[in-house]
Automatic annotation (TrEMBL), chains A, B:
Residues 28-344 form the Aldehyde dehydrogenase domain. Transmembrane segments: none annotated. It comes from Microlunatus aurantiacus. PANTHER family: ALDEHYDE DEHYDROGENASE-RELATED, SUCCINATE-SEMIALDEHYDE DEHYDROGENASE, MITOCHONDRIAL. This is Aldehyde dehydrogenase (NADP(+)). Pfam families: Aldedh (PF00171). InterPro entries: Ald_DH/histidinol_DH, Ald_DH_C, Ald_DH_N, Aldehyde_DH_dom, Aldehyde_DH_Superfamily, ALDH_KGSADH. Keywords: Oxidoreductase. It comes from the Bacteria.
Length: 531, 531
């Protein structure tokens, strides 16, 4: 791993405010998932002392950082984006070395990462995030006057962000949770994912540089490295932390939720956890374009070695010749895929166990399988399974997530069985319907049910590839997330780190600027929108 | 207890959909808190069978009720208001008999109750509640096209509402939680508070009449009577229930939160629990109008026998002659108050224990005490206590809520001690500052801290009396509520029972009407507000 000119050298340190901190004791290395070799340097394990130091600094930064204006924070986020971009090939090469993700994916993820930082800058400049609502006073109202009521949103306080293994940039150190929390006015303490500590350090140093450039308190941002559950639990339990953003496994998310609930003062944990992203192939769509759909399906299943939260792990189709043709084409497409590397040996092992268990389930057939490069340290074998609706309904494990490039096609007996299956689905990030004109009635019924199950409904597409915008929802009912009323992607994510406060009869000179009578911010005034 | 002509006779039944259900076994009576006598009829204890029956009906109603239009639900809520109003003196007399609240308070609460139902009707007709966001497609964008993304909010499903003891109308069967959940499109199962079952039955029958008038499914609304914790826990644990609204004690709220977290699929509990509503009397205000402030303070402390969530239980003032004068005037004002009845013997007992403990605390003086009518069954003795800042800081119990007509004035040594006290406050529904021009700098600092502690900041008023409007926030950090990002009063309360869903590339004829391209609803289109 070479370092590009101008990019910081990796030190293995946690970044706690302005200080590089390399705790004594055992450390850990990143591992190249292609070769299986350890990557330098060694990263020190942060512990309770480092958590305390980072959160004390974050709490000290909060009174200053929360009072920065939206314009100031917009400029800061844009500066973070610029510093991340300036890392250039030093960053993308390290991402590739630590994750094995293909170059095009890394480039796309980098663009998304800086793009969402800049998108939050536009949100901050717009001012709608203040959530201003005004009820004007009615001093002569009988029997009691109406007071002057002015509502705005305030940041909740220091936020803990857990980097995701599968998005080393877009949902890691300067990813969506960090961007939305910083946008809201909350200092951030990131626990970097131990699978990509070098990527985390590079990006962390870029954020720190922006903190320095903008004269912000050092505790506005810290990055802790570590591999232990204790580190994460200590961070969530710390009384200075006021909210948590997490993307990862169901077990990990639930452990953090439990830790947050055990606190003397519980806090919200926004955990994005588990989704199999069901897809429904309706008869008209299969008849019109089944084989073409099979090809794009295989791409969505196996891209990034299937390590995407929105990977389509379950496909439902009514049994019949068109479904046979789809399965044949999908099997052939999967067979042409060469296994990519999984992010870690642990994830690779979990994939093998999960896929082997599915293959061994009575009533499940393995109909397609990719190839493995024998040189690959942690291969993720693409596999396509098929079962029938009766087996699916009587084998609850088949509805669970297998993280990686596998998918299960369920041949459904009839529409009644399809209804039964839909009625039993757990909460999902996405649900997809492939349809043609002739499928209208069934599609309408299905979408009407799926909107109760998922945060995003797609038609004639694939759920992988999440657009970052104003309208996106990356969320959904439990177990997809722990907070179904929110999204972790898109501009509404800022709401997770804000809380409304109303000021009653507070004189103008004691009100925050956005609540002044002449303030030029979007507001709801006596129930009427003012832009 | 007479029944007015036209008002339904009380039966003691739970109202489960269209059926009156009177479970066998022991029942309970309401008790007149003035006389201590039991009021007829006997109310049957609902149990698991009734929970099951009500939630099954609610789940069956949901697919129909959630598809009603905003206009249809607006008309339904207005019909509920009209049916409640039509109960006339039968309702207000029963409220008085069951709660001992004064007639003016009951009349005001009735007006608030029907007013908030009608306010939610205006919200529904406005359409902003749909939360529409649209990102228009960019089919030619490189490297990937942007899909068509259309976000709206959907109701979460059947909601359990727990009636509050202290708001027999405005936060009970047809109160704020019910109004906001019904507005959102969620069927409601209310567990009525056992202290006012007759009031609950009357109001429940009014809602049922509106359900019938509007041809809605019977399961849109049910009312269960009962006194046991098991009933509440069973309701929260029921898999058909998707969210919970609760107003009551900290212990009760935390028990429901725990029950909701133990579910296989946890759900949000919106619990409004505990607040002492600190008030800060700044030097300029005390000098200018201390005695006048003392009179309004005593009214706020003892009104409704102090049984209001926003009752000011703690007052902080810098020690000195003006504070002496305030305490003297407040003591005199409290001494003139005759004890009103507490809502229940349990609440009266808790008040006596809490106030006795405070009176017995070393460093705390009882400086004012009202009088008790010896005929009163459950009197709530008004008491005013004074302590000093050192005692307050070293006696954490003094910062806890004593529900009833008591309050504690803390003589604070200096501004530094005031800062220390503010830094240690728990989350609150409200925080109040009394100030004059000369207090500007201290007030600015104080408000800057209090906005992190409370959901509502008031200047030169008293927190009792919550305005229901678009800008109100009745909420705050733990332990004031379990969900600090939300409000239980005001139009934003509807958001607690909604969840965003985005529709990606869904054809127009499969989209809900509010997402059609020509829809005339408020929306954020490509980040720009459209009214």
């Amino acid at each position: 791993m070479s370092t590009a000119p101008g990019a910081p050298a990796l030190t293995g340190s946690s970044l706690i405010g302005a200080a590089d901190v390399l705790p004594a004791g055992v450390g850990f290395h990143a591992v190249d998932p292609v070769s299986g070799t350890e990557l330098e340097p060694v990263y020190g394990e942060a512990g309770p002392a480092e958590v305390e130091r980072a959160t004390v600094l974050a709490a000290a930064a909060f009174p200053v950082y929360r009072r920065t204006t939206g314009d100031q924070r917009a400029a800061f986020l844009e500066s973070v984006a610029a510093h991340v971009e300036a890392l250039g090939s030093a960053l993308t090469e390290r991402v590739t070395a630590e994750t094995g993700l293909p170059a095009a994916r890394v480039a796309g993820e980098l663009a998304r990462t800086v793009g969402q930082l800049r998108l939050f800058a536009t949100v901050l400049r717009d001012g709608g995030w203040h959530g201003v609502r005004v009820d004007t006073p009615l001093p002569d109202r009988s029997p009691l006057p109406r007071p002057d009521l002015r509502q705005r949103s305030v940041p909740v306080g220091p936020v803990a962000v857990f980097g995701a293994s599968n998005f080393p940039l877009a949902f890691s150190v300067a990813g969506g949770d960090t961007a939305s929390a910083l946008a809201a006015g909350c200092p951030v303490v990131v626990k970097g994912h131990p699978a990509h500590p070098g990527t985390s350090e590079l990006v962390g140093r870029a954020i720190r540089a922006a903190v320095v450039d903008h004269g912000l308190p050092e505790g506005t941002f810290s990055l802790l490295h570590g591999t232990t559950h204790e580190l994460g639990t200590a961070l969530v339990a710390d009384p200075r932390i006021q909210a948590v953003g997490f993307t990862g496994s169901r077990g990990g998310g639930l452990a953090l939720v439990a830790a947050a609930q055990r606190r003397p003062a519980p806090i919200p944990v926004y955990a994005e956890m588990s989704s199999v992203n069901p897809v429904f192939l309706l008869p008209g769509a299969l008849a019109a374009r089944g084989p073409a759909t099979a090809a794009t399906y295989a791409t969505s299943v196996t891209g990034s070695a299937g390590q995407l939260c929105t990977q389509p792990g379950l496909v439902f189709a009514l049994d019949g010749p068109d479904t046979d043709a789809f399965v044949t084409a999908a099997s052939a497409a999967v067979a042409e895929v060469t296994a990519g590397p999984m992010l870690t040996s642990g994830i690779a092992g979990a994939l093998d166990r999960g896929a082997d268990a599915m293959a061994a389930t009575a009533g499940v057939d393995t109909v397609g399988q990719g190839t493995v490069d024998p040189e690959l340290a942690f291969p993720g074998l693409p596999r396509l399974f098929v079962t029938d609706g009766d087996t699916f309904l009587t084998t609850p494990a088949l509805a669970g997530e297998v993280f990686g490039p596998t998918s299960l096609v369920v041949r459904v007996r009839d529409v009644d069985q399809l209804r039964q299956i839909v009625g039993g689905l757990e909460g999902q990030l996405t649900a997809t319907v492939h349809l043609a004109e002739s499928d209208h009635d069934l599609a309408a019924e299905l979408i009407g049910e799926l909107e109760l199950v998922a945060g995003r409904i797609l038609v004639n597409g694939w759920p992988t590839g999440v657009e970052v915008g104003h309208a996106m929802v990356h969320g959904g009912p439990f177990p997809a997330t722990s907070a179904p009323a929110t999204t972790s992607v898109g501009t509404r994510a800022i709401e997770r780190f804000l809380r409304p406060v109303v000021y009653q009869d507070v004189p103008e000179d004691l009100l925050p600027p956005e609540l002044h009578r002449a303030a030029d911010v979007p507001a709801l005034v006596d129930g009427v929108r003012r832009s």
